[in-house]
Amino acid sequence: MAVITNIEDLRVLYKKRVPKMFYDYADSGSWTEGTYRANEADFQSIKLRQRVAVNMENRTTATKMVGVEAKMPVAIAPVGLTGMQSADGEIKAAKAAEKFGIPFILSTMSICSIEDIAANTTAPFMFQLYMMRDREAMARMIDRCKVAKCSALVLTLDLQVIGQRHKDLKNGLTAPPRPTIANIINLSTKLRWCFGMLGTKRRSFGNLVGHVKGVSDMNSLAAWTNEQFDPRLSWEDVKWVKAQWGGKLILKGIQDVEDAKLAVETGADAIVVSNHGGRQLDGAESSIKALPPIVAAVGDQIEVWMDGGIRSGQDVLKAWALGAKGTLIGRAMVYGLGAMGEAGVTKALQIIHKELDVTMAFCGHTDIQTVDKTILQPGTF
Questions:
Q1: What is the pLDDT at residue 66?
Q2: pLDDT per position as a tens digit, 66-79
């Protein structure tokens, strides 16, 4: 096997090993995919200042994200269907995150359940919540997070309606895949994936099937989900979630300064500057471009994180320099997971950490806490 040296190497291997519909699900955006591409591309225009003749010994990238110790300012983002990228994928990713020393966030739309992660890890994990019309189901899910001793709740605000993702529609995305001729032909070339799936009982949405009324299988789940994503979501609902939960609350999907200010008023502990990986409003600004004005407006009042487009440790350092106190990686994690399972997630984290550490050194710093926008070339951000 070729030597893996960067996240792109993992993506190439991932594409070979995972069924097309799940590769396309992860590695795509909505409509023209303009925002999806901009998330990654806009990092490249930000240039770094190289410094020399500085003692580079005893470097540290350690920080805290909403009080949780982290080896670097990176957490694994909540990604739906992760357990379809590799059998028991969420468990594998959570284990890799725990061993590496960064936070893990489980998606509402995960294959492995809240209870699965709690049973297979010891570090507290975070849970990402989608607001559904069924408030009773929401309250029960929040209670399950309390039982699992989740360290924080991440409420996603930008999925009141679902953006159109052409590839998912053309592929007929389902979990597990339907036995169509096209799927059978594709699966016949992904035997490693198939054997993995045969060895697990977790093949549907573990947080929902058996936990919400009227959902017992994939067909009833699809009908329930289409009805349940709540387009009426308001800031009053955010306050309801905060009251139900009572713990640390992070609001994900903030792209606008005015929304960031409203988020602060709810008493949330952090916000995530995010456009859902370019999967919702195509034509929206990239996350890294949206970050600086939001940090300027509310960064002294609330912890600001960002996600979208991070493919390297250099991207993490640039986001930190622009004021993000944490970053989330979704696709980079999925590439590693689909390529090599838990070991692939670990490899992705090792790659990002090494790039972050070495780039920080070249910019003249040994402690990430001293890094600010002075490491960036003026006029490039």
A1: 98
A2: 999 999 999 999 99
In contact, 353 and 72? CB cutoff 8 Å = yes
Q: Which residues pair with 60 in a beta bridge?
A: 367
Sign of the CA dihedral running 163, 169, 170, 173: positive
The sign of the CA dihedral 334, 337, 339, 344 is positive
Neighbours of 284 (CB within 10 A): 21
Q: Considering 211, 276, 353, 365, which one is annotated as catalytic? A: 276
What is the tens place of the pLDDT at every residue in 131-159?
Answer: 888 899 899 999 999 999 999 999 999 98
Is residue 121 pLDDT above 90, yes or no?
A: yes
pTM over 0.70: yes
* Two tokens, residue 72: 């670097």
> Strand 68-70 and strand 63-65: pairing?
antiparallel
Domains of the chain listed by start with CATH number: 7-47+55-356 (3.20.20.70)
Determine whether 211 is an active site residue: no
Rounded to an integer, the average pLDDT of 165-178 is 90
